[in-house]
Amino acid sequence: MMTRLPVVLLLASCALCAADREFERIARAVESHYGVTRTHIPLMGVANLFVKVARPAGTSGFKLALFENLNAARGYGDMSDLEQLFDELSAGGLKPLVRVHSRHGGESTYICTGEVGKSTKMLIATFERNEATVVEVQVNIDTLMSTLAAPELASKTFGIQHQDRDRW
Amino acid sequence: MRIAILVLAAGLAPLCAQEIKLPANVEKLAEKAEESVVVTLDSNMLRLFAKFDNNADAATKKMLAGLESIYVRSFQFKFEDEYKPADVESVRSQFQAPAWSRIVGVRSKNSDGDVDVYLKDGGNGKLAGIVVIAAERRELTFVSIVGSIEPEQLADLGGQFHIPSLEMGLGGARRRESK
C-alpha cells in the first residue's frame, strides 16, 4: 500500500507536468514557426489569482500567450500551413476536438483537450489577421460542451480577444 | 512486443473509427468556404460526455456511451454553387451496398437541399454506423457516427457537435431550420 501511494502521486504529477508542457510546446511552436516572440503581459500572475472571479463559471488555471505583428511572418494566414502545424502538434497527446476556419473574419480557432474528466484542460489557439492567442484553461464538462457547441465564440467566451493585454 | 502492438492499435483505432474519407477535392473546398468546421470526438470523449453532461437525459447519455466516434465536417459558402455536384457524389459513392444501405435520399429542387442518410449493418440486428450528407446551395455537411445507434436517435444528436438538426420521419429526413 505504501509503495503504491508514491507511484500514484508520481503519475499524477507527471500528468500535470504533461499538461503544462502542451501549452509551452504549442506556444513555442508558434514562436519558432512564425519567428515571433510572445508579448509580455504585465501582472499575468496576479490576474490568475482573480481568474475564478473574472472568467466564466467552471474555469480555472488560466494561461495565456499572445503573439502580435504576425502579418509580417512568412506563411501566416495560409490555412494549409496552419493545419500542418496543428497536425504535428496534435501528435503530442492533445486531442483536437474542433477546428474552425472563418475566411470572413480572417480567424482560425483550434480547440484541443487532454484527458477529459469532471474537469479538463482545454487549449484554445486563435489565429486572427495579425495576432494569435494560445490559452490553456481548466474547465468543467458543461463549459467544455458549451464551447464545443459554439467554438467560434470561444475566444470571446474566455475573454481572450487581443485587447486582453490592456485589461490585465 | 505485446505493448508495442497495443500502442500501435490504439494509435490506429481513431483512424479506423472514422468511416468517411473526404477526397482531396472536397477537402480543398475549405479554401473556398467562408467558414469550415471540423469536429472529432472519440469514444473516450463521448463516454465522458455521457457520464458528466448534466444537461443530457438518460436516453441521450446511453446513446453517447455506445458510440465510438463522431466526425463532422462542414463548409459554409458565401455564394451558391461554389461546390460541384461531383464533389458530393465522390463522397456518396463510398457508401455502397452490401455494407451500407441508403435509408433516406431527399433530392430537392428548391433551396431545401439534398440529404442522404446511410446505415451500416453491424450484424445481429444492430447498426454499426450512420453517415449523413447534407448538401445545400451554400452549405455542405458530412457527418459520420460510428457505433451502435438507431436512426431515430439521430434527431437527439441533431444540433449538438455541429451535427445538422434533422427531422426523421416516415417521409424521410428533412433538415430542420436552425435559429
Helix tally of chain B equals 7
Strand tally of chain A = 5
Average pLDDT reading of chain B: 77
Number of domains in the coordinates of chain A? 1
Amount of beta strand of chain B: 25-35%
Please tally the helical runs of chain A, counting DSSP H or I stretches of 4 or more residues. 7
- Our Rg estimate of chain A from Cα atoms comes to 16 Å
Helicity level of chain A: 40-55%
Q: Give the % helix of chain B.
A: 25-40%
Overall geometry of chain B: globular
The unreliable regions of chain B are: 1-16
Supply Rg of chain B: 17 Å
Oligomer: heterodimer
Question: Mean pLDDT of chain A, as a whole number?
Answer: 73
Distance from first to last alpha carbon of chain B: 53 Å
Percent of sequence in beta strands of chain A: 25-35%
Order of strands in the sheet with most strands of chain B = 1-2-6-5-4-3
Q: Could you tell me which chain pair has the largest interface and how many residues each side has?
A: A-B, 24 and 23 residues
Strand order of the largest sheet of chain A: 1-5-4-3-2
- Globally, the shape of chain A reads globular
How does this structure look, described?
Chain A has a 5-stranded antiparallel β-sheet with strand order 1-5-4-3-2. Mean pLDDT of chain A is 73; it is low at 7-17 and 162-168. The longest helix of chain A is centred in the first third of the chain and has 31 residues, at 4-34. With 168 residues, chain A is an alpha+beta fold. Chain A has helices at residues 4-34, 44-49, 51-54, 79-90, 141-149, 154-157, 164-167, and strands at 59-67, 95-102, 107-113, 119-127, 132-140. Chain B has one domain (18-178). Chain B has 7 helices and 8 strands; from the N terminus they run αααβααβαββββαββ. Chain B has a 6-stranded antiparallel β-sheet with strand order 1-2-6-5-4-3, with helices on both faces. Chain B has a two-stranded antiparallel ribbon with strand order 7-8. The longest helix of chain B has 16 residues, at 2-17. The interface between A and B is medium-sized, with 24 and 23 residues. Strand 2 of chain A pairs antiparallel with strand 1 of chain B, so a sheet runs across the interface.
